[in-house]
UniProtKB/TrEMBL annotation:
Taxon lineage: Eukaryota, Metazoa, Chordata, Craniata, Vertebrata
Organism, as annotated: Oncorhynchus kisutch (Coho salmon)
Main location per the UniProt record: cytoplasm
PANTHER family: PLATELET-ACTIVATING FACTOR ACETYLHYDROLASE (PTHR11852), PLATELET-ACTIVATING FACTOR ACETYLHYDROLASE IB SUBUNIT ALPHA2 (PTHR11852:SF1)
GO molecular function: 1-alkyl-2-acetylglycerophosphocholine esterase activity; platelet-activating factor acetyltransferase activity
Domain SGNH hydrolase-type esterase, chain residue ranges per copy: 18-217
Name the record gives this protein: Platelet-activating factor acetylhydrolase IB subunit alpha2
Amino acid sequence: MSGDEINPAAVAQAVEDVQGDDRWMSQIWRELFSPLHALNFGIGGDTTCNVLWRLQNGELDNIRPKVRFNWASTGPEREKSTAQGNSFVPVMHFIQIRTPNQYLIGPLQVTVVWVGTNNHEHSAEQVAGGILAIAQLLTSRLPKTKVVVLGLLARGDGPNPLREKNAAVNGFLRSWLPRLGQAQFLDVGAGFVHSDGTISTRDMFDFLHLTAAGYRAIAKPLSDLLLQILDETPEEKRASLV
């Protein structure tokens, strides 16, 4: 894209929340994130445009969590998926996390961003540009915050254009995010695609939606990274909750 060209994936746009917040009330969520006093602001169907709109329209106001997440999905969970992936990938859009002793005070330390797989109308470069715009907005509004951007997952039972697109988005992000200084890329998709190019139904039951095992595969390394960034080991975390 040229410097003067408007990126449609970096234009703020509102979205209707049709999913509610029960999706992440799971054992994995309770085990790894609830102890950190997480608040889930997830909205199914989010694109980078929707995340930007909410960031620009009050979602950053009057918060002092320790960690917050922006995770987005590809559409209603009840819809059937295809190899092209025209349905839901579970989401957490702003999750705010604090340990008890910092629940009322202290600056936001970490923001986790996971969005882009639902930008069906945008190119890989545009999607990555939209994610970069989110990270730039977060670092400008929250200068003391560390931004962790999760890589987009592979999808479909075999190689397909959307899988290639998501891989290209990840490639752009690996190159661009270090320029922000406060941003870090985390690949949570390693191991999902096997040597023959397939994805196991143990990880994605329909090659798009994550199973409990799939959720744990992405949540555990993310939890470990958050604790590392917060300079808090699992043992110290448990002790702080006693």
